[in-house]
Specification:
two-stranded antiparallel sheet, 7 strands, three-stranded mixed beta sheet
Length: about 240
């Protein structure tokens, strides 16, 4: 009887968690569909009615995710990060850049997942430090044009790998990279300079990483350099 009771409690708890986190994913998905287009954010529209953003972030306050459930964990924190960046922009609206506001990434806090947390905490402590996956840099969107584009849907546990692959491929076959075949040079976003260690794990080079996702491969003898990051806000 005791074992049955414990099992029942576990089932109820898991069902409650599933309903809670799925509601968050559904609401996040609806929000991104309504306010994101071509990688840009409708900040003016969001600022005119902040309730949809505040409501989805309210759902995220008490959700508890475990890194042992990696897909739910990663999808939750990626969405929470992207929504919180938008919240940070709206709290300082109108603005030309997130960098115009001291502490945007490392001082401003958000109540998420039962924690009071900064954007840098999410990116560096909860995601990068826990999983060796450079694709995070293509799905965490910092509110600037230099970031990879924000997609108009939520990241979901069931589709997370394919979504992360898709965004990485789009970036490395698009504006994240500039090739000059005549001069045998390739320029990449400054992100790859700042986080070089993420792109050169296991003895691989940055070009090795790029070619994993590039349709037109970069020759290994090309000289690699970095172009400056554009910190202008990613507004529609």
């Amino acid at each position: 009887m005791k074992k049955y009771l414990i099992f029942t409690i576990m089932l109820v708890t898991l069902k409650g968690f599933s309903q809670e986190v799925n509601l968050f994913f559904n609401e996040a998905d609806a929000f991104f569909k309504a306010y994101i287009s071509n990688g840009k954010v409708a900040y003016a529209k969001i600022n005119a009615d902040k309730d949809p953003l505040n409501n989805v972030l309210k759902l995220a306050e008490t959700i508890s995710v475990s890194k042992s459930d990696a897909k739910n964990y990663q999808a939750f924190w990626i969405n929470a990060y992207n929504l919180s960046v938008i919240k940070g922009i709206i709290d300082n609206y109108p603005t030309k850049s997130p960098l115009d506001h001291a502490g945007f990434f490392d001082k401003m806090t958000y109540n998420l997942g039962g924690k009071k947390i900064t954007l840098n905490d999410i990116e560096h402590k909860l995601l990068r430090a826990q999983f060796n996956d450079a694709r995070f840099h293509f799905v965490l969107v910092c509110g600037a044009l230099g970031c990879p584009p924000l997609i108009n849907k939520a990241y979901l546990p069931s589709t997370l790998d394919s979504q992360m692959d898709t965004q990485t491929k789009k970036a490395l076959n698009g504006s994240f990279l500039r090739v000059n075949a005549k001069k045998k040079r390739v320029q990449v976003s400054q992100i790859m300079e700042w986080y070089k260690g993420d792109f050169t794990m296991k003895g691989k080079s940055e070009i090795d990483f790029i070619n994993k996702y590039r349709t037109e491969k970069i020759p290994s003898n090309f000289k690699l350099s970095y172009f400056p990051y554009n910190w202008s806000v990613n507004k529609q």
